[in-house]
Amino acid sequence: MALVPYEEGGGWAARQLHSPWATFHFASRTIRLQQDWRRLGVAAVVWDAAVVLCAYLEMEGIDLKDRTVIELGAGTGLLGIVVTLLGARVTITDRAAALELLESNVQANLPPELRPRAVVKELTWGKDLDNFPPGAFDFVLGADIVYLEETFAELLQTLEHLCSERTVILLSCRIRYERDLQFLKMLRERFSVAEVHYDSSKDVHIYKAQRGNRKDDF
Questions:
Q1: From CA 80, how far away is CA 39, in angstroms rounded?
Q2: pTM of the shown model
């Protein structure tokens, strides 16, 4: 969500982050995304956590047809685009500065008949919640949105607002720092949390969270 520089090592990975385009294959389609690291930082590049969550949703055959989904901190839009292609009705959100690039990528990668199913909308965690109906979503998705400690309280407030008893939260992230574990502790104080997938090649974890003690299947 935050539009700040981020250090992720060098070499091939760094070249990918600074490339103006990134290409992926999901839902039997080629997805080509514009990136703009120099102007928008972390919000304008595709991170491994998004790729891993897209692959998880597709490979696990999770039924997203006509489900209502909201993505937080969407960045370039890969996850929201893939979820739309898999049949969901998706609200794709990020902060105002990221929306132009996000909207452009969504429009460029969805066929005309699916574009009405994906809405790009501004959401700053903890601040724009009146614009979103409480508890109205089947899934809340986030990829690599847990990294700035100062946003944790607002992110949790946003999750609590968006979720009903039936809502499934899926958060895909790399555990880089002690503060990331602290967020998971805070999440577990409010939701029932379980790790449902780990990609060892990319060191990315996927956590599923629901209100109370629910452990529903998808």
A1: 22
A2: 0.89
Distance CA 174, CA 49 (A): 7
The helix/strand/coil state of 55 is helix
In angstroms, rounded to a whole number, what is the distance separating the alpha carbons of residues 116 and 113? 7
Average pLDDT value for residue range 146-165: 94
The beta-carbon contacts of 3-7 under 8 Å, at least 24 apart in sequence, are 3/40, 3/41, 3/42, 3/43, 3/95, 3/97, 3/98, 4/41, 4/42, 4/148, 5/41, 5/42, 6/41, 6/42, 6/147
- pLDDT, mean of residues 35-52: 81
Q: Is the pLDDT of residue 18 over 50?
A: yes
Q: What is the average pLDDT across 160-182?
A: 94
Helices vs. strands in the chain: H and E counts, helices first: 7, 9
Q: Quick one: pLDDT band at residue 7, thresholds 50, 70, 90? A: very low
Per-residue b or e along 187-213, where b marks 16 or more CB atoms closer than 10 Å to that residue's CB: beeebebeeebebeeeebbbbbbbbee
pLDDT of 216 = 62
